[in-house]
What does this fold into?
Amino acid sequence: MSPFPRHDFRDLTLYAPDRRPVAVDLSDNTNQWGTHPAALERIRAATADDLARYPELYADKLRDQVSETFGVPRECVATGCGSDDVLDSTFRAVWGAGAFISFAAPTFSLVEPFARVNAMEARAVPWPDALEEPERLLEGGPALVYVCRPNNPTGEAAPEFWVRQLLDLVGEAGPLVLLDEAYADFAGSTLVAEAPAHPRLLVARTLSKAYGLAGLRIGFAVGAPETVLEVEKSRGPYKITRLGSEAGAAALADADGWMAAAVAECIENRQRLSEELAARSLTPARSRANFLLFPSLSGSARIDALALRAEGVAVRPFSEVPGMGDALRVTVGPWPLMETFLDALDRVRTR
Ligand SMILES: *Cc1c(COP(=O)(O)O)cnc(C)c1O
It folds into this structure.
């Protein structure tokens, strides 16, 4: 007999995007301007205690800063080892016999595996259908509805009124709506402030993108205290390191405006890159995130991504995106990097 009785794990695989080293990596939407200097400063000042002692049980320093930055009570803030961990813990918290998750597709690639490791099915509703009729996401009575806003990989953000419509349909007794706002810093639109008052809304955020802290693994979520409590129970104590809690809080305070400046430049470059792609008949989806999704050159995103990699630039391939077909997702960064990317693209196009 197998010591691993989880038959449902059998066809799960490890997350394995192409992470081979490359000169310019624009494949994972991390911050191409670097990291928040306030976080780096705190880490450089590390003491032996920072490593030898256990951290706070539930990352109170980080929660206090989230509370201050967003004007929400501390008991409305859950944290996690990256927002991936927050999503995973939230999925686990809503589990019950026969429970399933619904989501608008295409979206964040980890939603399906996280549902499955938590013994749930993830049911996809095509984005255009979900946008037209949000009730489609509630069909069959899911335990949780996952919505990514702005959405990865398209970059598009569902309108705020659409989210409100969905929340109205859910009411006080429907499924939990998990709004993944990993890219909200680049969109200038967030529902974080409203989440504490809504018993069925949890808004997840990360410091991995706008704050440049993907390596530190800091995520958090804001919701009603009773929702947050369940997520914290599901996730368990000690998941945020001592340095993570304090460096993350320092970054989130953004006292020197580093994050705000990087985001402003990113938004400017997003527009400029979008125009450059359109001029090459590769018009991207309208993005409010720090990346652009544009149609494949050859019809095969995988082949294009390999060709670009051979030219020293990594992007992420997606196959069969509705309305676009095979497509490539490129992270927006400082303009010299965008020029390197465009040069590589032009070499591949004219081969
Ligand atoms: C990058 C990303 C995350 C987050 O990641 P962590 O690094 O785990 O905080 C979450 N959701 C989406 C949609 C993302 O693209």
